[in-house]
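Dear Dr. H.,

I hope your travels went smoothly. While you were away I took the liberty of generating a structure for the chain from your last submission, since the lab meeting agenda had it listed for discussion. I wanted you to have the full record in hand beforehand rather than looking at slides cold. The sequence, exactly as received, is reproduced here:
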Amino acid sequence: MLGFPDAEDPDIVYRDGITDATYLEGEHHVREYTRAFDGLRAAALSPQRSTQLIKSILKEYTR
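The corresponding predicted structure, in token form, is as follows:
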């Protein structure tokens, strides 16, 4: 998502694919992608918990 400080330049969504890239304009797209990213952030572990999880998994594979 690309945000711009000037109100004349509305925020847009940049979606990158394997063979192409798309810019999605419009409040609807920005709102839907914002909601999706908010959900991902809410479900994600903190950086500290992520580190702990990775270390615990690494221990299992290096025994």
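Two observations you may find useful: The longest helix spans residues 27-43. The chain has two helices and two strands.

With kind regards,
E. W.
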